[in-house]
Amino acid sequence: MPMTRWPFTEEHEQLRKSIRDFVEAELAPHAEEWEEASAFPDFVFERLGELGYLGLAYPEEYGGGGGDYLCNVVLAEEMTRCNSAGLAMGVAVQTDMAVPPLYKFGSEEQKRRYLVPAVAGRKIFCLGISEPDAGSDVAGIKTTATKTDGGWLINGRKTFITNGARAHAMTLVARTDKDAGHQGISLFVVDTDTDGFRVEKTLDKVGMHSSDTAEITFTDMLVPDEALLGKEGEGFYNISWELQGERLIGAAGAIAGARRSMEAALAYAKERKTFGKPIGRHQAVRHALADMATEIEAAQQLVYSAAWKVANGEYPVREISMAKLITGEVAWKVVDKALQLFGGYGYSMEFPIQRAWRDARLIRIGGGTDEIMREVIGRMEGL
Ligand SMILES: Cc1cc2nc3c(=O)[nH]c(=O)nc-3n(C[C@H](O)[C@H](O)[C@H](O)COP(=O)(O)OP(=O)(O)OC[C@H]3O[C@@H](n4cnc5c(N)ncnc54)[C@H](O)[C@@H]3O)c2cc1C
């Protein structure tokens, strides 16, 4: 019988074990190869879909597992065992970022056409929010969708788009009324094989090498009326809803990854000797590891508390923003300290900690920076 730990149940722990076995057997052995290829292969989505991991919390009528939100947290935590955060991120974009708006705001027709194949792993999704001149300031986007005969004409540019070079469909944020401010933004779901959709380039990054990140342009791209996702003019509010899920799942993965780096450093501290004893027996190292373990525990509890609220139907923006902020800062601090404890080997490309260190930096930027989290929290504190 698997041990349980709040907020998880026995079913969650059984799911955890199945995902862990799969990730360790089928994904982790390929980490190096996929990092070097700058993209994990598309069949990973198909395999995850086949196993039911891309739709754990959706109803069975859409091919989902009928579970709760905590199942997605389990997936994000166990995906860290693939030893390549880029792969985990590409999958999280599908499960917790680009596809949830289809379930929440999509018509029945859109659910059948996009949600069902996304859950099955037959359609890969990306999420198009950020632009060269607008990331934190989502309302500052310039990509336009203009109502025309037979649909919407889309023009503009998106950047930093995870899965963008390979996706079959994009959940897109575009401006439908240039004079209406936040009310002038709408969501769309578009097929990437539509004329006018073009992948301009894939971007070189510090880390997350197994994840493709693309810059995309739209030139007079005509999409049908039915491409509108949710109501016209409600896109800013709907994408703000999406961002909460994105931030919380990012936080869950980041802190689980930090725990793995801490465990690797702990094992090394027991084995590496200096001045006649294992480095973990030097008080400074022992205390460093104690701090790492304590900060991880505290940050992870905040993630669990927010996730438990989400699983129970709440929308805890304050706690999610706090969880994203603290996990980013703790993960970065922990991974940096872990690298330090490996000494010169930590700086060598032959030890995996360098990849964890490069990958961990992103969580403080992607999906809303530390500064934006502080803005959200500060405003919710009444400032
Ligand atoms: C690897 C990677 C993958 C990504 N994947 C996606 C994706 O799939 N889809 C997508 O749409 N986007 C994606 N992004 C984009 C990401 O979400 C943005 O980079 C992020 O939101 C920050 O936006 P920006 O880069 O435009 O920075 P800016 O908004 O230009 O910010 C620059 C700096 O100014 C600070 N700043 C901005 N406003 C304020 C303020 N009001 N107060 C204080 N400080 C402020 C920021 O915190 C930051 O430090 C990805 C980015 C990366 C690097």
Commentary on this structure:
This protein is of the alpha+beta class and 383 residues long. The chain folds into three domains: 10-124, Acyl-CoA dehydrogenase/oxidase, N-terminal domain (Butyryl-Coa Dehydrogenase, subunit A, domain 1, Orthogonal Bundle), CATH 1.10.540.10; 126-233, Beta Barrel (Butyryl-CoA Dehydrogenase, subunit A, domain 2), CATH 2.40.110.10; 237-380, Butyryl-CoA Dehydrogenase, subunit A, domain 3, CATH 1.20.140.10. Helices cover 50% and strands 15% of the residues. It contains 13 helices and ten strands. The chain has helices at residues 10-27, 31-36, 43-50, 69-79, 85-98, 100-105, 108-120, 235-271, 283-311, 317-341, 343-346, 353-360, 370-380, and strands at residues 125-128, 144-148, 151-162, 169-175, 185-191, 197-202, 213-223, 228-229, 273-274, 277-278. The strands form three sheets. A four-stranded mixed beta sheet has the order 1-4-5-8. Strand 2 (144-148) and strand 3 form a beta hairpin. Helix 4 packs across helix 8, helix 5 (85-98) packs antiparallel against helix 8 (235-271) and helix 8 (235-271) packs antiparallel against helix 9 (283-311). The radius of gyration is 21 Å and the shape is globular. The mean pLDDT is 97. Bound molecules: flavin-adenine dinucleotide. The site of flavin-adenine dinucleotide has 23 residues, from strand 1, strand 3 and helix 13.
